[in-house]
């Protein structure tokens, strides 16, 4: 895993933790909390788009492409965003995503998992 992948994984974990902090301050029915959570979901999707597909294959149960597509929806079609979908993702999907990302980040510390930092994977896809 490259250092860049490790940084993107750390960004995802930080965004998920921030959503938890926002939710502790109020529910998604509060506009500022909803907007803050939506912004963090955009950050998560953007980070996912930068991760090496070989790395993502280590967590095959995570719907990585759906996360990237949700980012696009939230960023470009924000007036069409279904509140129920954001609510579902925040309440049901972020905890398993956090566990998967934490496991991938832990792999970064395993010996022999480093990739050259500036050498992209041949399989690098635009998620």
How would you sum up this structure in a few lines?
Helix content is 67%, strand content 0%.
Largest sheet: none
Topology pattern, helix = H, strand = E: HHHHH
- Unreliable spans are 118-127
Number of helices: 5
Ends apart, CA distance between termini: 18 Å
DSSP summary, beta strand count: 0
Total tally of structural domains = 1
Radius of gyration: 15 Å
- This entry's quaternary arrangement is single chain
**What is the average per-residue confidence, as pLDDT, rounded to a whole number?**
88
Shape from CA axes? globular
Residue share in β-strands: under 5%
Helix content: 55-70%
Description:
With 127 residues, the protein is mainly α. It has one domain (3-107). The chain has five helices and no strands. It has helices spanning 3-25, 31-50, 53-56, 64-76, 83-107. Helix 2 (31-50) packs across helix 4. It is globular.
Which helices and strands occur, and which strands form pairs?
Layout lengths: L2 H23 L5 H20 L2 H4 L7 H13 L6 H25 L20
Descriptive key words:
mainly alpha, 127 residues, 0% strand, 5 helices, 67% helix
């Amino acid at each position: 895993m490259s250092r860049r992948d490790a940084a993107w994984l750390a960004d995802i974990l930080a965004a998920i933790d921030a959503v938890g902090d926002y939710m502790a301050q109020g529910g998604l029915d509060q506009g500022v909390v909803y907007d803050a959570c939506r912004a963090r979901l955009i950050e998560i999707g953007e980070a996912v788009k930068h991760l090496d597909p070989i790395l993502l294959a280590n967590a095959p149960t995570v719907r990585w492409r759906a996360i990237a597509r949700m980012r696009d929806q939230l960023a470009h079609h924000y007036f069409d965003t279904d509140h129920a979908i954001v609510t579902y993702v925040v309440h049901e999907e972020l905890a398993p995503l956090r566990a998967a990302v934490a496991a991938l980040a832990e792999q970064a510390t395993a010996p022999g998992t480093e990739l050259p930092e500036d050498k992209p994977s041949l399989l690098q896809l635009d998620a």
